[in-house]
Amino acid sequence: MAYIAQIHRPSSIRHAVKLNLMSPEDSSLVVAKANKIEIWTYSEEGLVMLSSKSFHGRVSMLAKIRPFGSSTDHLLIGTSRFKYFTAAWNYDRDELETVNSFEDLSDRHMRELQSRDACLVDPTGHYVMLELFEGVINLIKVLKPKKGRGDEDYLDKAEQIRLSELKVRASTFLFTETQQPKIALLYTEGKGGNVRLATYQVVDDKGQYSSFNPIKDRENELDGLDFSCSHLIPVPKGDRGQKRYMVRNSLVPKALLGGIIVVSESSMTYLDDESNAVVKFSLDEPSIFVAWEQMDGLNYILADAYARLFLLTILVDGPEVVGMKIRHLGKTTKASQMVLLKEELVFIASHEGDSQLVKINLNQEQDAITIIQTIPNIAPILDFTVMDIGGLEGESKLNQYSSGQAQLVTGSGVNECGSLRSVRSGVGLEDEGILADIQDVMGVFALSSTQTENETDILLVSLPVETRIFKFNSDGDIEELDDFLGLSLDETSLLAMNIDNGLILQVTPSMVKLVGSSPEHRCREWKPPNGQHITIASANLEYLLLSFGGATLVSLEINNGLRVIEVQRLCQDDQIACIHVPFQNNGIGVVGFWKSGTISILDLQDLSIIQSEVLRKKDDASVPRDLALVQILPVNVSGPTLFVAMEDGIVLTFKVDPVSYALFGKKSIVLGTQQARFFVLPQSAELSNIFAAAEHPSLIYGSEGRIIYSAVTTDSISFVCPFQNGAYPNNIIVATDEALKISRVDKQRRTHIRTLPMGITVRRIAYSLLERAFGLGCIKRELIGDQETVSCSFVIVEDVLFNQVGQEFQLDRSDEIIECVIRAELPTTYQESLAERFIVGTSFLDDNSSSNEKGRILVFRIDSSRTPYLISSLTLSCACRQLAVLNNQIVAALVKTVVVYSYLETTTGSADFTKVATYRCSTCPIDIVVNNKTIAVADLQKSLVLLEYHPSKDGKSNKLVEIARHYQAYWATAASYLGDESYLESDQEGNLIILRRNMEGLTAEDKRRLNITGEFHLGEMVNRIQRVQMKPKFNAVVIPRAFLATTEGSIYLLSAIPFSTQDLLFNLQNSIASHIKTLGNIDFNSYRSFRNKDREATEPFRFVDGELIERFLDQDESVQRNICTGLGQSVEDIRDLVEELKRLH
């Protein structure tokens, strides 16, 4: 059985609508993200989300309806599985609730629309039109309240009407002066492909629906339209001081307001449906328009496919339309839909980039667009890779996403909206307030003036040439002090802390000072000899260890008036790089050294070495720069842990024997390219956390017997200290490059996303741990004049800040497209070990070319300047769709063929390819997965086939042998090996299936079958699947197996369910589904059941939906008790179980 849970929720917005949902006066913005409905409102700060609800269906349409007699609007929602419902805001429960629902029971063999489903509401609000299938519309009348019928039952039964216009491109209701609505249809004729416009009256004078007969019912038609016509814009009649009238005996009919605009790539055509008058306007620069929105009666904004906005203005003379004009406003994101929220304020929903809230000044010629707010969107995810930031020294990859050690890097967005996104589990850092705009902070230290335990009211801020003191009162007011207990404020402070007996210790470059708040506390000072300067210091309540001159160590006893215990000068010109004195392990200190690159644990009584460890590797000049020895895991689980921040951004950890202080269990993790700074945050029960300020700021803590590195959702942190105050409990002080802030660390992890805008499509991505770099297959689209140019390149970016390194490799031909990128270790003749390489597969778009060159395989190495260098290329007679490596040989999925090539690099600039085996596929391979000597091939139409590579033997040649196959039709998009002879495969309909080879079959034919052991409807198309290799902990509830990324911006974690918990989770899913109703009252089993054009199931098979399971935590106690009835587990046990599952992501 499989368990699937969301790591990142869908972020693509395809549908949006403005309506008065929550009150008659205030409007709301409702957006749809796959199976999620979000309600936003506008405030001075921008858009604020008020509600978010998931339900059992994927949204295919949104519309607003105002029932008769209602003061607020209702929301009409349609799903991709033809279930529809209306929802209204419940003021008592403060949530959306279902009003009525219905289902389209049309013949499933009808052809679905080529474009997305459409829902139109006529301007009077009396009729609703649904477009779901070619040649068919459904008309629904909004009924008036009637005695004997509930107020909620206001939608009449849908009337299905056949159309002769089969290939409808766009449709809209027209503005009329009567209660008889009209619709306009933009369609393509079956013969010849002519584009025409036709208008119909929906009902006659008696309220009967029209038969839409083109001979007798068609009101008007317009022929000779541009083939690129795509949108219809209805124009309101308006009020321009004159009534609309027609002069019937006029020789030239006039085009008056109230008609329709036909939008094409090169022209705009205005039709007055009543006078049949036409006004045409040709564009100076053609473009592909994708969305429009009305600003007022005469002005409309148009968005094109190149993320540009235009203003279309209707030119009038009174009520007469005399022309049109269009002007460019600026660039935004690529729009899927636009919504006017209020005057000049427009929400741009996007599927291919971030959604935006923009202000448009129609009277401004230049810089007319101001971006107010950006809503992140990582859809569509074209490809992704898993970057394990731990395990640099040969450790196995764990891909522990929940711990923050696994980072998912995605190629997201398309064209101008393309970007790299880093997705990592982390903790949030919420700012409580900004204390001061202070720059160049050298350190922050929290002190207590009252010596109250766990209570701090003094903040000491160290600056380059001074120290500043801030005092907090119980109400949260802050005052800066000019003096405090005689502390030195005229130089920087290296250390400040409270110690016993009401004393405060301060270390500056010139002295060590011990001061107290009572008169009996005499100020004590210690200064280094000969005017030398203290460079580093660390202390606990009893000992102070410092270095002056960079080469002398001094141990001081604090409680004995800063008595010097021992002084030691380093020999052999070595210098001290870092010092740490732990709180829990009294009497020892840890020191890191520059020249030798070692760390040593010292006895503070005589500064003798207890243990020492050399950290520097061969040909590595990195040195330790910061240290922390803390009890991060419970004592019964582990002893203290030593953390070492190296200069190159690597953090090393050692387990420390609490008696002998021996170091063992060395591990490493990468937090950046420069050293991290450690700040110890004491916790309860003598445990501590560590805040690591680095390029990837992280909170390091213990959980479930392991050390967790959780990303922190903020950047540019310089210094941190814990701060406990009555007004600010459980907070930390954070110093950034710009300001000093007081912040609170969230207790729960959440997904942290970092974005690197690329402005191009990142189609393929691969990660090399050895090179610490990503190889990107990029597509760049440019519009030069009215010509579109496309170019492809292979780019290297480093793995910390995602900045490009070296020069990109530009493909020579403009019609060559990168299809796949992988990293591999390949053999060479000039070195013993395998060489790290990137392999790129391409295809040529020009099918009419007489050349036999249809694709290439390119092998790159990264040179000393970190530029990709082409070693060798292999010309192919067909496109290379996917690549993999089998036993140091290259496996290429070509069109209709899988080929195995032997590869041998003869020099640094040449290599030999030799074809050694081939296999003919059913149609076209989409994805390939290699496991040992087995190759799984996901076919475009024919599901999955397993091949086994047989090397030459006894004079027989190498060959690929089919050993198993899934015999059902299945339009695959991605595949992955899960282990235990099982494979996961996704399709274009949003389904997932798990296939397992029937090794226990009785006959050879049985063993050749791949049987379905699980199937599930995800509702989103999966673009890429990456396998997870994780060591399961003992008694794990589920075992992670794969990450999945979708076109809607979702990322899922699929896990295997051990036999011991299968029945419990399956029964829990059924119980939750029966007790919890979602919007639309759609049945869970119906929503998650497998369905494609050939087969339809009634429920998911051997799959557990993590999203449904986690809803258990949102229910009140009584509902939880009802759910747990019959499960054999208490409410508390089930709650613990679900919380453990949630911690996976």
From TrEMBL:
| Superkingdom in the source lineage | Eukaryota
An example of a GO molecular function for this protein is: nucleic acid binding
Q: Does the keyword Cytoplasm apply?
A: no
Pinpoint the RSE1/DDB1/CPSF1 C-terminal domain residues.
793-1114
**Sorted alphabetically, which InterPro entries does this protein's record hold?**
Beta-prop_RSE1/DDB1/CPSF1_1st, Beta-prop_RSE1/DDB1/CPSF1_2nd, RSE1/DDB1/CFT1, RSE1/DDB1/CPSF1_C, WD40/YVTN_repeat-like_dom_sf
Per UniProt, residues of the RSE1/DDB1/CPSF1 first beta-propeller domain are 12-376
The record, for SUPFAM superfamilies, names: Putative isomerase YbhE
**Entry's localization field:** Nucleus
Q: Where is the RSE1/DDB1/CPSF1 second beta-propeller domain?
A: 437-744
GO cellular component terms, alphabetically, are: nucleus
UniProt-recorded name of the protein: DNA damage-binding protein 1a
Instruction: Give the organism's phylogenetic lineage.
Output: Eukaryota, Fungi, Dikarya, Ascomycota, Pezizomycotina
